[in-house]
Amino acid sequence: MRVGRAALARRHRLIAPVCGPLCGLAFINSIGTLGGFVGPYMMGAFKDATGGFTTGILAMAGVMIVTTALAASLKLVVRQE
Predict the structure, then answer these.
(1) Which of 27, 28, 38, 30 is nearest to 63 (CA)?
(2) DSSP 51
(3) Cα separations (Å) of 8 from 1, 5, 17, 19, 20?
(4) For residue 31, which of 57, 61, 67 has the smallest C-alpha distance?
(5) CA atoms of 63 and 5, how far apart (whole Å)
(6) Helix axis angle, 54-77 to 2-50, nearest 10°
(7) Per-residue pLDDT at 1
């Protein structure tokens, strides 16, 4: 089992410098695609439940406020190198 772990660690060190920026872009793209899929369904569910679009718009605004706060807090969390 140790041989497998060593090989995996060695492969990770070879891929990590290349995968870093590329994996970050893929992650951002995946989140955007997920938002494009979930957003319309969320708006439709709120419209069906309440009869109007106000609740859905307020929910999306709330999500945007939370993500803005999280993005702003990254400066405090990430160490400067």
Answers:
(1) 38
(2) S
(3) 11, 5, 15, 15, 17
(4) 67
(5) 40
(6) 150
(7) 47
**Lookup: tokens for 75:** 């400066």
Q: State the 10-residue block means of pLDDT for the chain, 81 residues long.
A: 54 60 81 90 93 92 92 77 55
34 Cβ partners below 8 Å, 6+ apart?
none
pTM of this structure: 0.59
Identify the CA nearest to 61 among candidates 75, 46, 73: 46
Question: Burial code of 65-74, b = ≥16 C-beta within 10 A, e = fewer?
Answer: eeeeeeeeee
